[in-house]
Amino acid sequence: MKRVIAIILGGGQGKRLFPLTMYRSKPAVPIGGKYRLIDIPISNCLHSGMKDIYVLTQFNSESLNNHVNNTYRFDFFSRAFVRILAAEQTIDNTNWFQGTADAVRKNLYHLDLKNDEEILILSGDHLYDMDYRELIGFHRHNRADFTVSVIPVKESDAREFGILKLGSNGRITEFKEKPGSSSELKDFKVTGKDCLVNQRVCETCYMASMGVYVFNARAIIRALEGKDADFGKEVIPHSIRKLKGFGYIFNGYWKDVVTIKSFYDVNMGVAVSKPQFSFLYNGSVFTRPRFLPSARVHKSRIEHSIITEGSVLYDAHIENSIVGLRSTIGRGCRITRTVVMGADYFEDPNRNEQIKIGIADGSNIDRAIIDKNARIGRNVVIRNSKKLKNFDGENYFIRDGIVIIPKNAIIKDETRI
Predict the structure, then answer these.
(1) 215 Cβ partners below 8 Å, 6+ apart?
(2) What is the pLDDT of residue 91?
(3) Are residues 324 and 380 in the same domain?
(4) Shortest CA distance to 29 belongs to which of 414, 417, 406, 309?
(5) DSSP label of 67
(6) Is residue 255 domain-shared with residue 304, that is, in the same domain?
(7) Does residue 65 contact residue 84 with C-beta atoms inside 8 Å?
(8) Residue 101 has pLDDT above 60, yes or no
(9) Which helix (H) or strand (E) element contains residue 47?
(10) E strands within 219-340?
(11) CB neighbours of 309 closer than 8 A, spacing ≥ 6?
């Protein structure tokens, strides 16, 4: 088998995920109670037999670097690796990464590419389960220079993605990045057996780029010859004209986690009784082993929720929620439709803190995201009672109607949000 090198893009600022990206990069954002977004593409690579994995980092990269270095360690006799390639200034180039394509271009010399090798380019902010061997097999079968993995989407979602038009043989004939109107989408409409949106048949759909690409070594060098900064906006449209590109249709579950709403929705989606994506059934998703004690639950009622290790619940009602690592939820608390990320450490019980890490007695929280190490006082109510869409408050933010308590925030007793 030819050598396949995987490159995971993890350097973006993630402005639309603020304030979750206030102190961390997008791929380092916790998801599903105990994982981080970067664990998804790395796990997919390992399950697909990929052993040469690079993660490109730049913005707020400390927590991402720490997670990767402490999680993906292989024995001395294995050639497998997950290696960080941080943005760097050199004698030839003193600029930071200007986009996804620019990040790959500036790191090509680290890869020591051979002519018969292939490059698998992935994003670090997607949730999906995919065997990349099928994608690469398709790429080789068609003798493509590059292949874009695409997924069928409805018209209401099409404007958020790069949309491709495929010929009868699967070759890419046109590409439009985030079309702004229905008229721009007109020529990209697809009907028939390929319209399987979220694993359900749809009358019409559009083929959206997943941000998953395979390039032959020679092709990627040629595609990055110019100054194009971004794959979606520039490299793929330009490569269609000078290289042989194909679209591989993926019909599994896939979500782009780039906004607060999408992050909230995918977390709520994994907590339901029959999730479309399950960390339990979709194969193993690897993450950092923390050797925490089992969760302790005292006289609590839990419905359609995920409770992770190290958590302690005292006479609480948890419904349609995710309770992350080392969470402490006090007596009489009611937590509904909420993502509680938990804590990075167990707080010393003898420490003289007026408000402890966790959620204190009597608090009521609905449709919120509580970031790590937050301190929520007694009898606090968090539920966006004014139904604001976006708002910046004292120690909290509202985005898309969802209240976010940022990392390390302190919410005083009796506070109403």
Answers:
(1) 118, 119, 121, 145, 146, 223
(2) 58
(3) yes
(4) 406
(5) H
(6) no
(7) yes
(8) yes
(9) helix 39-47
(10) 245-249, 254-256, 296-298, 301-303, 306-307, 312-314, 317-319, 322-323, 328-329, 334-340
(11) 34, 290, 292, 293, 294, 295, 325
The secondary structure element, H or E, covering residue 55 is strand 52-57
pLDDT digits (tens, 9 = 90+) for 277-297: 988 765 689 999 999 999 999
pLDDT band at 85 (very low <50, low <70, confident <90, very high): confident
Q: Measure the CA–CA gap between 211 and 327, rounded to whole angstroms.
A: 34
Tens digits of per-residue pLDDT, 217-274?
Answer: 999 999 998 888 889 888 998 999 899 999 999 989 999 999 999 999 999 999 998 8
State how far the alpha carbon of 48 is from the alpha carbons of 10, 88, 155, in Å: 20, 30, 32
Structure tokens at 402: 């969802």
- The mean per-residue pLDDT over the stretch 94-99 comes to 70
| CA 111 and chain centroid, separation | 25
Q: How do strand 162-166 and strand 172-177 relate by DSSP bridges? A: antiparallel
Q: Do 221 and 303 belong to one domain? A: no
Amino acid 198: pLDDT = 62
Residue 187 shares a structural domain with residue 318: no
Q: List the alpha helices (DSSP H) in 173-214.
A: 182-185
Q: Which of 385, 362, 358 is nearest to 372 (CA)?
A: 358
Q: Are residues 79 and 226 in the same domain?
A: yes
- Residue 249 CA to residue 367 CA, distance in Å, equals 34
Residue at token pair 């359900």: 200
The Cα 140–Cα 118 span in angstroms is: 10
Identify whether 315 is part of a domain. yes
* pLDDT tens digits, 25-76: 999 999 999 999 999 999 999 999 998 999 998 888 888 999 999 999 888 7
CATH number of the CATH domain containing 104: 3.90.550.10
